[in-house]
């Protein structure tokens, strides 16, 4: 994503684009490309697959891991508000 935005400004379309990027690169490649680590507790459930919730939201906002300091509760709240399902491991 080109433009950086606050996570509270993310749209559903931003998240779906980030999911598409993750699908294209595979989760390991996606995480490595943006400096994120695998999700330890919460994962985004979409289209029958599970995705690293923080990494997806961060990339949806144009943020690298170093730039995104939102905690798990914040990430889950934002994704729920956008109509996504987040599951706990």
Number of strands: 3
Strand content: 5-15%
Radius of gyration: 11 Å
Looking at the structure, what is the overall shape?
Answer: globular
List the uncertain runs. none
Counting DSSP H or I runs of 4 or more residues, the number of helices is 3
Q: What is the multimeric organization of the chains shown?
A: single chain
How many distinct folded domains? 1
Strand order of the largest sheet: 2-1-3
Structural class by helix and strand composition: alpha+beta
Task: List SSEs in N-to-C order.
Answer: HEEHHE
What's the overall average pLDDT, rounded?
91
**Helix content range of the residues, please?**
40-55%
Amino- and carboxy-terminal Cα gap: 28 Å
For the sheet with most strands, the description reads: 3 strands, antiparallel
Describe the 3D structure.
The protein is α+β, with helices and mostly antiparallel strands. α1 crosses α2. The protein has one domain. The chain is globular and about 25 Å long. It has three helices and three strands, in the order αββααβ. The mean pLDDT is 91. It has a three-stranded antiparallel beta sheet with strand order 2-1-3.
Topology, pairings included?
Blueprint: H1 12-34, E1 42-46, E2 49-52, H2 53-60, H3 72-81, E3 85-88
Antiparallel strand pairs: 1-2, 1-3
Helix pairs in contact: 1-2
Q: Keyphrases for this structure?
A:
single chain, about 90 residues, alpha+beta, 3-stranded antiparallel β-sheet, 3 helices, 3 strands
Q: Could you provide a short overview of the structure?
A:
This protein has 89 residues and is of the alpha+beta class. The protein has helices at residues 12-34, 53-60, 72-81, and strands at residues 42-46, 49-52, 85-88.
């Amino acid at each position: 994503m080109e433009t950086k935005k606050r996570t509270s400004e993310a749209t559903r379309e931003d998240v779906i684009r980030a999911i598409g990027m993750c699908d294209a690169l595979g989760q390991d490649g996606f995480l490595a490309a943006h400096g994120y680590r695998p999700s330890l507790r919460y994962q985004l459930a979409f289209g029958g697959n599970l995705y690293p919730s923080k990494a997806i939201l961060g990339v949806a906002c144009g943020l690298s891991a170093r730039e995104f300091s939102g905690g798990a509760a914040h990430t889950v709240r934002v994704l729920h508000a956008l109509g996504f399902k987040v599951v706990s491991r």
